[in-house]
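Supplementary Methods, section 5.1.

A reviewer requested that the exact input to the structure prediction be made available. We therefore reproduce it here, unchanged from the version used in the analyses.
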Amino acid sequence: MRIARFSIDGNVAFGVVEGDESVPDGLVLDIIKGIPFAEYERSGTKVPLSKVRLLPPVLPSKVVAIGRNYAEHAAELGNEVPEVPVAFFKPSTSVIGPGDPIVYPSFSQEVHHEAELAVVIGRMCREVPRERVAEVVLGYTCANDVTARDAQKAEKQWARAKGFDSSCPIGPWIETGLDLAAANDLAVTATVNGDLRQSGRTSQMIRSIEDLIVHITEAMTLLPGDVVLTGTPAGVGPLHVGDEVAVSIEGIGTLTNKVIKRD
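The structure derived from this sequence is encoded token-by-token as follows.
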């Protein structure tokens, strides 16, 4: 099931995405009563997807991201594979949705795309045993860990390089129908202006989704709607003002954003 968050006529709601996306205007939203983190029911009221504005599928209290989780990506930037997962935060203010602009930060001259599988947490959890990870996952979505690479190289902390406003596009919706085995072997691609830049599979991750959730929740509580970014495959590269970047993940969908100059 695909669950989207959207706005229409000034109102914000969640809905289940239905229909055939290969047909023009073939997708509709069945508005749900409630929220996807608790019991809800479909209202039966349906609106065409083309008539709404898709929003970030969740508003996370935090985004916990994992760096260098693909060996080829670590190598392309001249880094060793870390002995333990490298975790960092992207603030809630960095999150944008499908179609929202990535605003090129004034302090950087080298902004890169990083296509990633995002895990959406469905319930409050801490110290999750490996065998219970599936119980805390609501679903999965596409993410772009947009990075000011020059700032990342120059500064010991990655807060500005990874956390600037609009640096965390996620969407277009949450796919809840994937089990862990499937999510650990999905194709991940990124295109810029239609040209393929990144192509990999989540099976290439050094540490699996289970490994990451166990590792993160040893230290902190994850809340419903929090997001875990699982790392990016090789092929990261520059974005420029005017570029359109699209992250696609097998079985989930495509997240598209355009890069603009700050006013």
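The longest helix spans residues 209-217. These observations are discussed further in the main text.
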